[in-house]
Amino acid sequence: xxxxxxxxxxxxxxxxxxxxxxxxxxxxxxxxxxxxxxxxxxxxxxxxxxxxxxxxxxxxxxxxxxxxxxxxxxxxxxxxxxxxxxxxxxxxxxxxxxxxxxxxxxxxxxxxxxxxxxxxxxxxxxxxxxxxxxxxxxxxxxxxxx
Length: 146
Prior knowledge:
Elements: H1 7-10, H2 12-26, H3 32-46, H4 49-61, H5 66-71, H6 83-96, H7 105-114, H8 117-139
Helix pairs in contact: 2-8, 3-4, 3-6, 3-8, 6-7, 6-8
């Protein structure tokens, strides 16, 4: 598969703007391991090889266990995630899969039980950020770094 375009070269201002969003999310006060868990899950859901390959080592760096990394695709059936992590993963799934549906109130109640409203807003921004990165990398056919 050949890369269609490189956003870092073609639209450097757009890339820098996306990176500024990433920088904000990183500094918003949420646990960096939790953010990487969410980014990994969303990237798996969207089928973004570039982002999955990027976020696995970052997940390790920020404290996720090998069991968590290996089982994130099956998080609902896996006992290795805390209640807070499960709430974030459920929120990530619901916010990512919006086609023809709303984010269910039950999922909002689950995330609201574990996160403040500000944390939910920042978590949602993280989910939106990674969904945009996924779409950019998939549309441009940017291959995973080897």
